[in-house]
Structures are given as C-alpha cells and as structure tokens.
Amino acid sequence: MNNLLPLLAVETSSDLCSVAVMIDKNVLVEMNFLQKHVHSEKLIVMIDDVIKSTGIETKDLKSIALSIGPGSFTGLRIGLAAVKGIAFGCKLPIIPVPTYSAHALHISQYLSKESRFSIVTNASIDELYYSKFAKKGNEIIVLEELRLVKKTELKDLVVSGEEIFGNVELENVINTGHGLTAASISRWAYLFGKDLLTFDYDYLEPNYFKKFVVKVKS
User: How confident is the model at residue 209 (pLDDT cuts 50, 70, 90)?
Assistant: First the structure.
C-alpha cells in the first residue's frame, strides 16, 4: 500500500468546501458543501464526519493533502489553517497540491490521449488565471505556465482544435462549474505528492499568485 494512505484531502480554493479520505486507490469517501463564505463554519465538521464515515480514526491517517492555490484568498487561508492544526496535532506531513495541476489531471480523464487544453478561472472582475496543458498518453505537460490574463484577451488565446475549460461564463469556455473537489486533490497527491511531503508547516503559505488589493470606496 502507498505509504501516504490513508490520506485526508481538503479543497477550499473556491466556493465549494470539499473533504475526502482516500483509504486506498480504489476506496475514497468524499463530502462536498457548496455555499459562499461557509468554509470556516463547515470545514472542521466535514473533516470529522468524513473520517468517521471511513471507519478509521484521525490517528490512522498517514498524510494530509490540500489545494494550495491559486484561488479564493479566504478559502485557501482557512483550508491551510485547518490542515496545519490537524497536521501539527497528529504529527502528519502535509502535501501542498498545486490547484491547477490537480484540475488538469481531473480534466484529462475525459480527453483523448493526445490533446491540448487550457484552464481558466476567475481572478477578479476583469482578470482570469490561465494555463495551457498537453495530454500525451498518461502524462500531463505544462505548455504555458500559470499567468493572469484579461478576460478581453482570452479570445486571442483560443487555438483551433484546443478546448478551454473553466468556471467562467465566456464564449469558447467549457464551463466546469465546481468540478475540482477533494477527490481530485487526493488523486494528484497519491500519484505525484511524495516529493512534496513536508513537516515545515511554518513555511507553508497559500499560493495566492495574484496580490490582494483592498478597494476603498472614495
């Protein structure tokens, strides 16, 4: 059995609050709650409920994975704080999972073995996070690193034969809604997370990517 398992996974990078426990590669229990601004209220309760539903105890966990960003400033902060607390108390390593890498792995399941695709998510009213990937066999390759683009620029990035996935209502974008869940985080961590294991909790910070700017009404 993979020595990361059982693995607790947390996804809080969007409005979706999602928790999963992967017992082995074939057994996974997941709980999702979709509502804005409830992560601080629901997350710990959901973690407790999901662990109990698997029939194991927190002390039986071997690792914790979480979506590290980019995404919601508040959601990422709450998710990391909860995970750090559990990891510290149980002496467990944390696997910080790049949100877009997990999203790409999830989407690639539904594409042909030779595909190019992009992922976009909202960063602000007029900006998007954007990255492009290629699927070659079972491998996912980053073609264009994550960056910020203007929504008005997206049409210039569309390439014939390539699909764009995301949670935005824009022309040419296949809307994935809240397709990224803790199940996807756990799967990425199981496949690729061993080299990211860390006990240095103090050095872990969310990958906000975009600087947080407080807007004050004049």
Answer: confident
